[in-house]
């Protein structure tokens, strides 16, 4: 059990018809909590650090990435490290040196031809550096400043176009727009399972579901059964962490030692991770 390559985890999961849960890391406590939840569930996981999280840390990617890698190395679970939602090629080029075995290049908001050209350049670089590259076709909305909703006409991923896109770019995995949306705080998304099945038949690489915090457990199980291989979860962890911190500070308004509320936040994230691992990776 240790730090492993994302490709290895996703291939093992696909062979066992399981998905690999991929959880967003914002601070060291998140990485620790995700590893604890993975061990409790007995499920391998991906720690992913988004470009937005890198910006939050003042554009410093290495300190959090190296800390997350050390958490993975000392864990009882198999854990991979992924750089998520990268729009900046300069940041992508730092991925390998910072310890990431995979990255998601995010050009899904662009028109098809522009997405294709940018993703091809990213894939060529990534493969030269041994980095497994995920891209997006169709548009999973809901990120800050997002131009379109996941439910707007024309944003779902078309299977024929997806097959061409993968062949023309050589990407290793594809994020698809099938009805989920980023940053949902209620689990009310309804996925297009028939579309997932058609994408699975048409596309020869693993399919990735983004915006999974808003997807109910049964919908997640059906999505995995239909062919989703990696399930990205972020907002659910933030909600659990923040609620625990809020409750702790409300109960103990005299708190001055941050460890008192960070510990409760870390426990809440670990429990959320354990539950979601059982749903998508069990
Ligand atoms: O790439 C990260 C995920 O798509 C997270 O989405 O915050 O809505 O769970 P979420
Ligand atoms: Zn996402």
UniProtKB/TrEMBL annotation:
Domain of life according to the entry: Bacteria
Name what cofactor the protein needs.
Zn(2+)
Q: Matching Pfam families, A to Z?
A: F_bP_aldolase
Q: Which NCBIfam families match?
A: cbbA
Name of this chain's protein: Class II fructose-bisphosphate aldolase family protein
Please give the organism: Actinacidiphila acidipaludis
